[in-house]
Amino acid sequence: MAIPTKVSADYGAIVRDIAIKAGIANKPQEAQMSRTIISTSRDTGMARNDVAEVVNALVGAGMELSKALEYAPSAAKFVVGQGADGADTAKMINALGQNAKITDAKDMQKALEAIAYQGQAGSFEASDMAKWFPELLAGMGKLGITGNDSVAQLGALLQVQMKTAGSSDEAANNLKNWMEKIGSGDTVAAYKKVGIDYQGSM
To answer: 44-93: per-residue pLDDT in tens?
Structure first.
């Protein structure tokens, strides 16, 4: 009997934490949020506490609660289907919003489906993408590549890197280093010396 009570207490604590962050503690919206999380858990097969943790991570990173709850079903399906970490997935969703400028729930679902497909079709798995996308999407944003284009291109670049790398971490690091160098002042200056407008050619 102690285990279900503990799980329930943990769930209540997570819900209260989200409610405090969202400014709805002890208001009717708190109970409504809890019902939405439980419903998402039932629909996706993800444990109730884990769904709540994903919502908490999204809200904790500054996302509006209504948006976090809207994204929760897609996030939960991704976590369950790809064996990804919930916290990593929440960070990736935030990065897709902030760096890739994907702000519509349907577009977010498409992005997550594309990442899942790329992970299954290639050798850089979706769970690893969840871990690395936040950092790498920032690099894509600096290069001016946003939206679902950035998701498709980044996924493809990672799959190419995997052909020569020994691990997904090595592939992601190689790509990160390349993206950092590609926009550096030294690179731009080197192109300028031979008469090429680097930014224009990019």
So the answer is: 999 999 999 999 999 998 899 999 999 999 999 999 999 999 999 999 99
Residue where the block lists tokens 């109970």? 31
Residue 199 and residue 182: Cα distance in Å, rounded?
A: 10
Tally helices (H) and strands (E) across the chain.
11, 0
The structure tokens 């690091």 sit at: 173
Give CA–CA dist 147/149, Å, rounded: 5
Tokens for 92? Answer: 């990736």
**Proportion of the chain in helix, strand, coil states, percent, rounded to 5:** 80, 0, 20
Q: What is the pTM of this model?
A: 0.82
Tokens of 119: 């992970």
How many other CB atoms sit within 10 Å of the CB of residue 86?
24
State the Rg of the chain over Cα: 20
